[in-house]
Design brief:
49% of the residues lie in helices and 8% in strands. The chain is α+β, with helices and mostly antiparallel strands. The longest helix has 51 residues. This is Chloride channel protein.
Length: 831
């Protein structure tokens, strides 16, 4: 896509209140042409004094923040031809529109505006409906909130609220663990039925003396049928019922915790589809695991429990009302994600570290303790339930991803550290290559696989490819091993002698988690070098084409499995060359290979090392080799690509704030980042004006001003900020100044919390003619202490403030405290 940094858009606004009737034309201006106004401005062509917005005038329909791109220039999204969201007309049409305006400037009944693009490339599909909005992590410290604080400003209430927080975190841990059990038990039972049937089918159809008419095509067809049926079911649920459940869910959770509102991410229906989708995908034999989606499931559980109501079932339990805001909900979602990871891996400390290292953007000491408690409760509950289900008296099912304990302590020699570092370098290279290939495949999907039924067919096709490749490997690689040497659950004899089984079939006739466990604990000599070589290459390919399908699957298991396979393979090759190398424990190097590959793909270090140690029972002394391997993998991988979660976030065009300001903005000032002029509201303003600006624009924050000269609101002195959701609630409840005597004693902060989080839209508001002259006094509703910065402040300084406080809006003022612009998170990304 051609960059259009200096492109200007010519906007023609119709008189209708409906946004769909707005006619938008865009024309490219020559870079050498003299600009009418300053860059990044949005100013009427007429004389500013003549174009002032009066109460009876039409408010400005669009402004720069309406055209905030939803994607960076590195990942431009293709625009469908003929789409209703296509707002960019042809060049000739735009030029004619511009010429007509210049020739007859008086022939238009409505103001025309110039808009300078805020980004290097605009996703035109996002102009009609900007999908992603920011969350309000900054508490609205208005009069109603302060009154509630005064009423509850006592030690008893604070202790009660703190106890409720702990109760919620404990509930999150218990419920998340139970959901993990509901997911795990069907997978284990259905997989056992599937592989038992396939094993019997293969044994009964091998052409031997007892069965000369055997035909191995029959078990092949059975395998395909038993794979595509659950895969199609799961893909259909994801595609038609809840598309947000596709993938592992970690990029979405990470974006949510960063401050971006991802539509439908924490709904009950999302959780139900996620659970069923994971079961069907894993049972269908797709290359993926159930562990990754558990973080998403835990986040949904946390969001639901902490609010004390269900908007899906329209049921309010009238509990936990004090936690109904984005700031409180964020902390609970973080604890839920940690509880999900702890249940998946049986790693409480690893779950807490995973949430802090990979997901969280904000945390404090108290939150760490609560998150750890939720993780411990989750892991312990799952251990009890699964151990009881399997009839065990000792607690051995610590998590869904149970890698088993090593029989002998894992020891290492210091001369092995360079080998571990080389493993890390290899994992970083392979991870970067995998991330790159997967990204290109997903871009191909986004471009060509657009229809819903095509996504379902694609998932079924990938399942067929996986079954076909597995059958080819099992048929042609005759790796026979004696029975009893390794604990395989479904030994397939095939062409082997009596009391022997096919080692290649053993790798495929079980769940991916069981395969990883086999590679860790199978004794030396359990596989041929050729077997693991082909298996590694095929599984690497399958994992690459599977991650990104419209199914609910995680990436942790296939990545770890590929790493364990090539780690064990390298140990076998070195032992074949140097038979006297007694330190080459294949299980140990399988673990190092898994860590290297996971580090290369996910770019995790501390949390991943703790998770691997807790899931395998490795000694604390082995932490050093793991962390050396992971750091080496991360450093090498970061040189080429980002982690897979960050790549997926960018491909989804989610405006996630990085930890540091982008280098291209360093040295800039606030005046170079801000959007201006700003649509403002007077402290006491007309209901008609407020209604019309809500209809005309999609902004979610409006500076409240006073000391306004006439109706020139954009130059008023800042006295607060009011949110779009607040204004809609005010209009819906008819909280007009003229009727204050009727609602003054009944209004409270609960009026706004009761409609959280699904605030009504402006379409649900009707403003009768008799109420258009009413006024709204925002003094008790607005936040009187918005974060303000000077137009001369450096971009680095304001970015640190913006990110640390979790802001949604930052007002830019001059020395007289008058509004000169506003900054949102997208200004730090797409300016």
């Amino acid at each position: 896509m051609k960059k259009i940094d200096d492109a200007e858009c010519l906007i023609d606004i119709s008189s209708s209140d409906d946004e769909d009737n707005n006619i938008v034309h865009k024309t490219k201006r020559k870079e050498s042409s003299k600009p009418i106004f300053a860059a990044s401005s949005f100013v009427p062509l007429q004389n500013p004094k003549e174009s002032e917005i009066n109460d009876d005038d039409e408010p400005p329909a669009l402004s720069p923040s309406d055209f905030e791109p939803s994607c960076s220039t590195n990942n431009p999204q293709p625009q469908q031809a003929g789409s209703s969201s296509t707002l960019v007309a042809s060049e000739n049409t735009s030029v004619r529109s511009a010429n007509a305006l210049l020739e007859n400037p008086e022939g238009r009944n409505h103001p025309t505006f110039y808009l300078r693009s805020r980004s290097a490339a605009i996703n035109t599909a996002a102009l009609k409906d900007d999908v992603y909005e920011s969350l309000d992590y900054d508490v609205c410290d208005n009069v109603l909130f302060k009154e509630e604080q005064k009423r509850t400003d006592n030690a008893r209430f604070n202790i009660k609220k703190d106890i409720l927080r702990w109760i919620i975190f404990i509930q999150i841990g218990v419920v998340t663990a139970l959901i993990a059990c509901v997911i795990d038990i069907p997978i284990e039972e259905l997989s056992a039925v599937k592989y038992t049937f396939l094993k019997d089918s293969v044994d009964n159809n091998v052409a031997v003396n007892l069965n000369p008419n055997g035909n191995l095509v029959i078990p092949y067809l059975y395998w395909i049928l038993m794979s595509i049926i659950p895969v199609i079911l799961g893909a259909a649920l994801v595609t038609y019922v809840e598309p947000i459940t596709a993938g592992s869910g970690m990029p979405q959770v990470k974006s949510y915790l960063n401050g971006v509102k991802i539509p439908r991410i924490v709904r009950i229906k999302t959780l139900a589809v996620k659970a069923v989708g994971v079961v069907t995908a894993v049972v269908g034999g797709l290359v993926g695991g159930k562990e990754g989606p558990m973080a998403h499931a835990g986040a949904v559980v946390a969001a639901g429990i902490s609010q004390g109501k269900s908007t899906t079932f329209v049921k309010d339990f009238r509990v936990f009302r004090a936690f109904r805001d984005d700031h409180e909900k964020r902390d609970f979602v973080l604890g839920g994600a940690a509880a999900g990871v702890a249940a998946a891996f049986g790693s409480p400390i690893g779950g807490m570290l995973f949430s802090l290292e990979e997901a969280a953007s904000f945390w404090n000491q108290n939150l760490i303790w609560r998150t750890l408690v939720a993780s411990i409760i989750s892991s312990f509950t799952l251990n009890i339930v699964l151990s009881a289900y399997h009839g065990l008296h000792n607690f051995t099912f610590t998590g869904l991803f149970n890698l088993g304990k090593f029989e002998q302590p894992l020891k290492f020699e210091y001369f092995e550290l360079p080998i571990f570092m080389l493993f890390g370098v290899t994992g970083g290279l392979l991870g970067a290559m995998w991330n790159s290939y997967n990204t290109h495949i997903n871009r191909f999907r986004a471009r060509f696989v657009k229809f819903k039924f095509a996504r379902i067919i694609e998932a079924a096709l990938v399942a067929i490819i996986g079954v076909t490749l597995a059958c080819i490997m099992i048929f042609f690689i005759n790796d026979c091993r004696p029975l009893g040497n390794d604990p395989t659950d479904y030994p397939v004899q095939l062409f082997c002698e009596d009391n022997e089984y096919n080692a290649m079939a053993a790798l495929w006739f079980q769940t991916p988690e069981a395969t990883v466990r086999s590679l860790f604990h199978d004794p030396p000599g359990s596989h041929k070098i050729l077997t693991l070589t082909v298996f590694t290459l095929v599984y690497f390919f399958l994992a690459c084409i599977t991650f990104g399908l419209n199914v609910s699957l995680g990436i942790f298991i296939p990545t770890g499995l590929v790493g364990a396979a090539w780690g064990r393979l390298v140990a076998m090759i070195i032992f074949y060359i140097f038979p006297e190398a007694t330190f080459l424990n294949p299980g140990k190097y399988a673990l190092i290979g898994a860590a290297a590959n996971l580090g290369g793909v996910l770019r995790m270090t501390i949390s991943l090392s703790v998770i691997l140690m807790e899931t395998t029972g490795a000694e604390t002394s082995f932490f050093f080799p793991l962390i050396v391997t992971l750091i080496s993998a991360k450093w090498v991988g970061d040189y080429f690509t980002e982690g897979i979660y960050d790549i997926q976030i960018k491909m989804s065009c989610v405006p996630v704030l990085p930890w540091e300001l982008l280098p291209k903005y360093k040295g800039h000032k606030a005046s170079q980042l801000m959007s201006s002029p700003v649509i403002c509201i007077k402290k006491i303003d007309s209901a008609k004006y407020i209604y019309k600006i809500l209809r005309r624009c999609k902004h979610n924050g409006f500076p409240v001003v006073e000391d306004v000269e006439g109706n020139n609101r954009e130059n008023g002195r800042v006295c607060g900020i009011v949110l779009r959701s607040q204004l809609i609630v005010i209009l819906l409840n008819a909280l007009y100044e003229e009727k204050k005597r009727f609602w003054e004693k009944e209004i409270s902060i609960e009026t706004f919390r009761n409609v959280y989080p699904r605030y009504p839209s402006i379409d649900s508001v009707r403003l009768p003619n008799e109420k258009q002259n009413y006024t709204v006094n925002l003094e008790i509703f607005m936040n009187p202490s918005p974060v303000r910065v000077s137009e001369c402040d450096s971009a680095s300084k304001i970015f640190k403030k913006f990110r640390a406080l979790g802001l949604r809006h930052m007002i830019v003022i001059n020395r007289e405290n008058r509004v000169v612009g506003i900054i949102t998170r997208k200004d730090f990304l797409y300016k």
